[in-house]
Amino acid sequence: MEFDGEDVLVLVGEPDGEGGEVGRIPRGEVSIRPVDDPSRIFTVGQEIEAEEIGRWQGQLRLSARACENPALRAFLVAVQPGQIVSGTVSSVHDFGVFVHLDGEPVGLCTGFVRGPELTWLHIDHPSEAAEAGQRVTGEVLMSETRYGQVSISLKALLDDPFVPFAEQEGHVLSGTVTKILPFGAFVRVAPGIEGLLHLSEMSDSVPGSPDRLLAVGDRIAVRVAEVDLQRHRVRLCAPAS
Asked: So what CATH class is 70-157?
């Protein structure tokens, strides 16, 4: 082992150097903790474990942080995409929800659910779908040893409301305006389903802004023009006169 500026160079392979390869550990991969100087973590000649993360310009790149906590690494390696896991919500933030997963090492919080993976329903903030102390169950999307995190989807275990709603294509429904934008309005036409009513569909004489014709909370009749199951989008239009 030797230090190359902010990075660490290590010999991968046999201790005597026969058949070995020089790998590089970037400073950001030295430790989970912030590190100003890698020599405060490692010493020349020290034997360490590291995870291969790829190659850059032909040189092997490694992550020591992925192996820093053996108990955490063992837990994360055992968790596979598609696996069903349960846990307790630890905290709720603007960007998502942290979850203490069952069986994870004591004192750690490895589960994370991004806002879009909480529910099929439209929410303005993750706190509308989860709260601290709540028990949740979800499907593993990814287990990341380098970041000590398991990405989870709660939505994956819920029925997709767009599938049965696709049968409404072509039908006229009553809905509630939920949001006004410069190019149109979003209308909730079923639980968890909001569609876009474009500005051009609101009037034969196009006004300068949709808010001249509609307001949030208005109940209006719309026709379901298209249900895009792949992108989970609904296009609405004015009912035929």
From this structure: mainly beta
